[in-house]
Write a structure and sequence with these properties.
The complex is a heterodimer of chains A (83) and B (151). In chain A, strand 3 (48-54) and strand 4 (57-62) form a beta hairpin. Chain A has a four-stranded antiparallel sheet with strand order 1-4-3-2, with no helix packed on it. Helix content of chain A is 0%, strand content 28%. Chain A has a domain at 46-83. Chain A starts with a strand and ends in an 8-residue tail after the last strand. By secondary structure, chain A is mostly beta strands. By secondary structure, chain B is α+β, with helices and mostly antiparallel strands. In chain B, the strands form three sheets. Chain B has a two-stranded parallel sheet. In chain B, strands 3-4 form a two-stranded antiparallel sheet. The longest helix of chain B has 16 residues, at 98-113. Chains A and B meet through strand 2, strand 3, strand 4 and strand 5 of A and helix 1, strand 1, helix 3, strand 2 and helix 4 of B.
């Protein structure tokens, strides 16, 4: 995790390795449908790099840098909600 | 997130790295930590809070909600080889229970240490007997485990 300059750009997470998660061309009946679940248990966790806040610093976190340990990855709807 | 932060030392003892992810910017993460979470958990959030504003990471993990532009409550247990061993996804109104995640990690760690020679029955808790799958166990699980053993 390297310290990130706190610029004004809208930095976001990006998936690393493998094909980018491009949307398949939507056929009429598929339009408006949710993207289907792409991960499964027993499969490799998609790697990503994303900005993070950690103990007072803005950093960049790459998931695969932490392989070798057990990881608990938790998504939640938003800050300032109960989680 | 505060429940996870509050039990962080227990997770560390088990060798678990914790990362949280939402679509909020890392600047908002700092504000939430400084103004609310640090008042609920001493020292504030001890693990990295990841920002995924465009939802790219959430999409890759199947927890991106296109309609609301948010990420669902998805929890993934990833083993040291980078393989997803468990996942649980809840809609936003219901929070998770950390103790169940801890139990699952302990069970997966035991299975990994035994190199797959042991398995854990339903409701297994650390210290309880495990199953050793093989020809002798077929039809004999009742001798080692029954539902009443589940706490």
């Amino acid at each position: 995790m390297g310290e990130q300059p706190a610029g004004c750009g809208r930095v976001t997470g990006s998936v690393l390795g493998g094909p980018a998660p491009t949307e398949p061309p939507a056929s009429p009946e598929q339009k408006g449908k949710e993207t289907t679940m792409t991960v499964r248990v027993g499969q490799k966790a998609p790697d990503f790099q994303a900005p993070a806040y950690h103990k007072g610093a803005f950093t960049s976190l790459k998931l695969s840098d932490h392989f070798g340990k057990w990881i608990m990855l938790c998504f939640y709807p938003g800050d300032f909600t109960f989680v | 997130m505060s429940a996870v932060a509050d039990n962080y030392s227990k997770l560390q003892e088990l060798g678990i790295e914790v990362f949280s992810v939402s679509v909020d910017s890392h600047f908002v993460h700092k504000m939430w930590n400084d103004h609310e979470l640090s008042k609920m958990v001493e020292g504030g959030v001890p693990f990295p809070m990841i920002s995924d504003q465009a939802g790219n990471v959430g999409r890759a993990y199947g927890v991106w909600d296109e309609g609301q532009g948010i990420e669902l409550r998805g929890r993934f247990i990833i083993d040291p080889d980078g393989v997803i061993q468990a996942m649980e996804v809840l809609t936003p109104p219901v929070g998770r229970k950390l103790a169940e995640t801890v139990r699952q990690v302990q069970a997966f760690q035991l299975v990994r240490q035994s190199k797959g020679s042991e398995a854990t029955p339903a409701g297994w808790e650390p210290g309880q007997p495990t199953l050793k799958p093989g020809p002798d166990l077929v039809g004999n699980i009742w001798k080692v485990w029954k539902p009443s053993m589940e706490k």
